[in-house]
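We read letters as residues; the integers encode the fold. Take this protein.
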Amino acid sequence: MSYLTNFNSETAKQILMDIIRCVNQPENSKKLSEAKASAGKEMILMMQHVFPLVMQLQLEVIKGHGFPGNREGLVQFSQLIREMERDDMEIVRLRSQIRAIYLPPIAINTTNDILI
């Protein structure tokens, strides 16, 4: 668990940027585009086709930074990132970029605060 002793906001930003770079590599970008095309605008299909690809890419990146390359490592990394979001808007921005890959935008009626 030595990766935790060196984990700070700069490390978090670097890992998030590495994830974005990994996702944008031509081969990965192509796979994600194909998965998104097959899912269309259906949220359930996005979660079945796109989400697992993004999680796999994240696992590969965080493993390279010392985190366990499994579900627990990903959960641990995500929890650390969420804690750091409270104090760092750049981390919020980077995480939002990653989430936008697998979470399509949701239209919200701001007048009544309801989803449409």
About this structure: The CA atoms of residues 6 and 12 lie 10 Å apart. The mean pLDDT is 88.
